Amino acid sequence: MTIILGLDPSLTCTGWGVIRSEGSRLTHIANGQIKTHAKAPMAERLALLHGGIASVIAEHRPDRAACEEVFVNENPKSTLKLAQARGCVLAACGGASLSVNEHAARLVKKAVVGTGGADKSQVGAMIKVLLPGAKVVGTDAADALAVAIADAHLGRQPGQS
User: Fold this and answer.
1) Is 143 designated active site?
2) For the chain, what are the domain ranges?
3) Does Nuclease show up as a keyword for this record (predicted)?
4) Catalytic residue (choose from 59, 140, 143, 151)
5) What superfamily in CATH does domain 2-154 come from?
6) Radius of gyration of the CA atoms of the chain, in A
């Protein structure tokens, strides 16, 4: 049995999802979103993200985490903000000595939906199928659960090569 924390970092709204993986069986444990206010100082927003993820880790004690790899979009300012948010989330994992697997967004979508070009509604629909009964709090949490599910299928256990 492995408890996996999936992460979908964003400065505006970071999604997180925790699942249990036992062989091919997946069970939903929890999910949520950490939202920051756009007008708040950057340092406060980043501290909120870090503290929020650190609290999730302390509460659910995952065995490992999984995060989408950073992608570069056309707006360099947006890319920088995403990188800062991602850094806070990864620092929270590192502070808890939690190993983190990273997966490309297209690979996550392919693992969960069957196509790398899936949109958010398709990902959300498959989360309902793969984790029946889970109450997903929003699209960012659904994306984080998708990362955790993909990691359950694709991820390596710590120490594996």
Assistant:
1) no
2) 2-154
3) yes
4) 140
5) Ribonuclease H-like superfamily/Ribonuclease H (3.30.420.10)
6) 15
